[in-house]
Design brief:
Thrombin, subunit H; 29% helix; 13 strands; 31% strand; six-stranded antiparallel β-barrel; 4 helices; single chain; globular
Length: 261
Amino acid sequence: MMLELAALYLIVTNNRYQQTFFVNSANAVTGDVLNTYDNLTSYFYLREVNDSLMQENAQLKARLFIANDDSVSSIMVVDTANQPLYSYVPATVINNTFALPNNYLTINKGSLNGIEKDMGVVTSSGIVGIVKEVSPRFSVVLSVLHGSFHTRVAVQRNNEQGRMVWDSKDPTMVKVVDVSEPGVLYPGDSIVTTSYSMAFPPGYPVGTLESYGKTTGSNFYTLNVKLATDFSSIQYVYVIDYLYKEEQGDLESENMTNASN
């Protein structure tokens, strides 16, 4: 083996053609190694790129700029008449559970940032929960993955509606119950929020339909929905303030009081 290496060395060092061939071959091998390294590096950064694209998608849908951190104090969303409807407050998740029967998140924004109880919380990809408790600098969020969480949602394609609940089993799935007549649905149909909730803007992503069927002994259907939010990797959220919530709530309460008299 040593003799073969010595012979190869003499051939390369004493013949210009062999020198050129050897250098070109070495460059080719080096290029392949660097290309492989670049591909591996790109692969490991795919998740970060995907998160960035999700952020940009949310920005385009809302027609506003939302930072991918909590350095912005709040962002206004306006209607077609340029009237403010919602205020978004970016926050960072500092604690989160998703494998318990009842789960919560803690965020680093509180009453000093305008956060109040019952405000909706979302990511750029889907809903997260409802603000449950607030201190000056922190808030605790009742997660979608909690037995007490519920909100009204709809199939985006035909607006068939039901109540979203979690059965404390799979943190990637929820059920939509009490659906009266869903019509013909297809796997992958988008499930979104409705205007019946003052916590979330109507049409905000909830997830996608996986299957559905009529509940045994009932006239209602149940939808099995894959959540759009990955609760195992939440870092940033947006707390939503519906700016006409108090006015709408007061009017509805007054109407209900008058109806009962």
